[in-house]
Amino acid sequence: LRVGVNGLIAEIRARMNGLELNLPENLSRYEFYEGALIELEGLLTLQRRYAEKCAEMIKTATGRRKEELYRMHEALCRVPAQPPRTFYEALQSIHFYNFNLWELYYFGRVDQYLYPFYKADIEAGRLTYEEAVEMFACFLLMPEAYIMPSVALDSMIGGCDAKGNPIENEVTFLALDAAELARAGNGKIALAISKKSSDRLLRRAIQVNAAGATQPALYNDDVITAGMIRAGVAPEDACYYANTGCVEMTPIGK
Q1: Residue 4 in this model has a pLDDT that exceeds 70
Q2: pTM to 2 decimals?
């Protein structure tokens, strides 16, 4: 989201150019970077094809559908190649990137990395809370179209930051509202709860469970963070984990 796929490609090329290939240990590094380039360049090719298809559909569309397609086309001409500018583009970028990784990675801490986009949109008058809930509900439903049965793609919310402060913002709550609305079988919400979690957050999570949404799944943030530290993870990283597989706890980016 910070640099877009073009930024990742530029970094990979710089690393490849900096390798001394006379050293045997660098050959496997070069092959790894080469494989990453192939994947990312393929992703950009698919992005372009989707944009072209969207432009083709605009020609015969009418009314609200035409407006939707124009918006999709604008987003697909930008992301994931470039950094997203809005909440909508950020969701599109995450989905498109993850779609090409084919069930390898979960969505991680969505309320942390999506909040700046949401906040900027709200302040600029580009987005309402209700619109954001609908977008995120659609985001949760997207995996239904392409992942294998009984495989979940979780979005984790809540928990605490490196200073031990609970993380709760409007994206935390809109994700829960979207989960109740979508009731997706594969696009799931996971909630990290701690002793510091607010009564408001716990009450809303229980309401969504009680409504029959079978989510959010609840994770004990205090126990997991302590376990991470005990396993040797640095305290500043121990709180930044995601559930991968089913309930396997994995430090993010480490």
Answers
A1: yes
A2: 0.91
